[in-house]
Specification:
One of its GO terms (molecular function) is calcium ion binding. The chain is mainly β and 396 residues long. Helix content is 5%, strand content 24%. Among the domains are: 40 residues, Laminin; 36 residues, Laminin, CATH 2.10.25; 40 residues, Ribbon (Laminin), CATH 2.10.25.10; 35 residues, Laminin (Ribbon); 50 residues, Laminin; 71 residues, no CATH class. It is flat, with a radius of gyration of 39 Å.
């Protein structure tokens, strides 16, 4: 909510950036709608968010008579201005608003909790540990009811379940909560480490990529084939570390081998065969020093010059001009750098939408140009520094 008269001392104000504000457009905001029209202040694309009958209406173009107060304003709206509006603190606690529409309850003596809902007693602060349940006794005393696996006055002790463990084959016991775990020695497995691991069998062969498995009773080893390494032969050795690719060729790793991916018209196993044009004109090939901006250089057969093949959306002899761009996702926009090459430019917009209102193009800060879709019609407004702002509408 913006109080009436907020901008009364700002006599030279011409623009307000209000587009990101969700306005509640009832009678208390009527003054703002009247003021921007009367004093020719540009509020941008400020729109109403509530109430429902005013939703998505523009502050600048909505008639003053539409800003009415009907019925009670919801608690959600009122609490945006005062988080303590709903009196959330119990037992005479004092509510203090803080940042981000939050609040803090300052509790009266004898109470605690986020909303001062709990009375302070012997269980205040929960003296019971490990999820124990506190019970208030007489004379300010308490007792703790411990969950399974814990004991002690405050449930502070974990019962040692390893005292009666069933671990076998010299396995070590790890105490848990109302349980234990057997940590097996090398070569054994199972809940109690009772089973010897059947290394190198069809059911249990950890070696990969054609490696040979060797059983050593308590452990195993893998004899890797050429091109692999690692305990289980899972690592493909990078053969590109010592590659012989030439002329900017890219090395692609294989298994105990590699392939050179050649640039342009280079060929050969190691890209050692130069393209025909470069062999005929080794120092004077024009693509050796081209200036294609957003495309690739191409020299036609039999020509001493080159041409630039532009990427989609670019044109020009050197692909230096951006000619088109597009997007298909909802709630998207494109932001471009300011034009610096020429004082004028032609812009063509092709769009399809089911909405009656929206911004199509906006340029400038102090002197702006805006193209909008307003109630199904195209509206163009521009400001050259001589107020008021000029506005044009399409016929259909």
């Amino acid at each position: 909510m913006i109080p009436e008269g907020t901008f009364v001392d700002l006599h030279s104000i011409t623009h307000l950036a209000l587009g990101a504000n969700p306005f509640y457009c009832d009678c208390s905001l009527q003054w703002l709608a009247d003021w921007v029209k009367r004093d020719y202040v540009e509020p941008g694309i400020a729109r109403c968010a509530e109430p429902h009958n005013m939703r998505d209406k523009l502050l600048l173009t909505t008639p003053s008579s539409a800003f009415q107060c009907k019925g009670r304003v919801s608690y959600d709206i009122l609490s945006k201005c005062n988080a303590c509006f709903t009196f959330p603190c119990s037992n005479n606690g004092e509510c203090e608003p803080i940042a981000e529409r939050q609040y803090h309850c300052r509790c009266a003596p004898g109470y605690h909790g986020q909303h001062c809902q709990y009375m302070i007693d012997a269980c205040y602060g929960n003296p019971c540990r490990n999820a124990g349940t506190c019970k208030v006794l007489e004379e300010g005393r308490f007792s703790c009811h411990c969950p399974a696996g814990f004991t002690g006055d405050r449930c502070e002790s974990n019962i040692d379940d390893c005292l009666s463990n069933k671990c076998e084959n010299n396995a070590s016991c790890v105490d848990l909560v109302q349980a234990y775990q057997c940590r097996c020695q090398a070569g054994f497995m199972g809940e109690y480490c009772e089973t010897k691991i059947p290394f190198c069998t069809k059911e249990y062969n950890p070696c990969r990529n054609g490696a040979r498995c060797v059983d050593h009773f308590t452990h195993y080893t893998c004899e890797c084939v050429l091109g692999y390494s690692g305990d289980n032969c899972t690592v493909n050795i990078d053969d590109c570390q010592s590659n012989m690719c030439q002329n900017g060729g890219t090395c692609v790793d294989g298994v105990n081998d590699y392939v050179c991916k050649c640039p342009g018209d280079f060929a050969g196993k190691f890209c050692e065969i130069a393209p025909m044009v470069a062999m005929l004109y080794p120092q004077t090939s024009p693509c050796q020093h081209h200036d294609c901006k957003n495309g690739i250089c191409f020299q036609p057969m039999g020509s001493s010059d080159y041409i630039c093949k532009c990427a989609p959306g670019y044109s020009g002899k050197r692909c230096e001009y951006l000619t088109s761009l597009s997007f298909v996702h909802n709630n998207s926009f494109v932001e471009l750098e300011p034009l610096r090459t020429k004082p004028e430019a032609n812009v063509t917009i092709m769009f399809s939408t089911e909405q009656e209102n929206g911004v199509l193009l906006y340029d400038g800060q102090n002197e702006h140009l805006a193209v909008e879709l307003f109630k199904g019609r195209i509206r163009v407004s521009y400001d050259l520094g001589n107020y008021p702002v000029s506005t044009m509408y399409s016929i259909v």
